[in-house]
Structures are given as C-alpha cells and as structure tokens.
C-alpha cells in the first residue's frame, strides 16, 4: 500500500504506533528530499537507524514545523481515510484494508471511539463467515467510499 509520505501522514502513522523509531532517520531524509526543511529533520536524517535520540528529534521537528499534538482518534480518522483511498484505488483488497484499520485501532487507546467500527465488524465477520466474504468486501468498499469523501 502506498500511503503518502507527507509530514501529516507520517505523524498519523507515528501516533498510531505504525512507525518504529528506527525508521525515523530514513523518513526524515525523504521529507528533506521533498523540500520540507527543519534543523531537527536534518539532525534526524544524519542518525543511523539504531542510534538513540531519533524520537526526541522527530517530535521536535513536528513542533518546529507547526504540526502540534495529534489525538489518537484524529490519527485513526486520517488513517482510515488514507486506507479507504487505497482500497478504492485497488492498492489493497477491501479485507486487507479493513484489517489494517482494525490493527491501527488496536494500537491506540480509543475507548468510546466507534467511527471505524464498520471496518472492524466487516473484517472480523469475514473471518468467521467465509461464505459471506463477497458481502463483507462490498460493505467495506461502500464504507471506504464514505470515508474517501470525508473532510479532515
């Protein structure tokens, strides 16, 4: 799946726990190559993947670039929209996309957050009711259409 590698999408995946600290130096290099400049990104890009300090530098870069704090529920919404776009572009199958969203929800404490539950329900039911897989895949595509048109 080719989720965009812009600063906000990286922050989204970071908040959701989908990026490991060792990936941050390479992502900083990618952002610098895209023309996003920050003294902290430059420092971060110079680190080796296993070198300490990457997390602090990344968070300082987010602050310096005006990203601010992102709530886990906002990150889940942004991620669901990005995955929905990938589902509709046939970059991932509907079930794979729904499972990605489900796994992302499991990574964060989002008690009482039910916005992505249609994806979670369809993915879990498709596992236990393989005879209805086509029905659940179509339901996921319809939900992806709804998310794709949402504004965040």
How would you describe this structure to a colleague?
- The chain has 152 residues and is an all-alpha fold.
- The chain folds into two domains: 7-64, no CATH class; 72-148, no CATH class.
- Helices cover 63% and strands 0% of the residues.
- It is built from eight helices and no strands.
- The longest helix is centred in the middle third of the chain and has 17 residues, at 72-88.
- It is elongated and about 55 Å long.
Coarse structural class: mainly alpha
Total E-strand runs: 0
- For the report, how would you describe the main beta sheet? none
Q: How many structural domains?
A: 2
Question: What does the overall shape look like?
Answer: elongated
Order of helices and strands: HHHHHHHH
Indicate the percent of residues in helices: 55-70%
Cα-atom radius of gyration:
17 Å
What is the average of the pLDDT values? 91
Number of helices: 8
Low-confidence residue ranges: none
Keywords:
152 residues; mainly alpha; 8 helices; 2 domains
Write a short abstract of this structure.
The chain has 152 residues and is mainly alpha-helical. Helices cover 63% and strands 0% of the residues. It has two domains: 7-64, no CATH class; 72-148, no CATH class.
Would you spell out the secondary-structure blueprint of this structure?
Blueprint: H1 7-15, H2 24-33, H3 39-45, H4 54-64, H5 72-88, H6 94-107, H7 117-128, H8 133-148
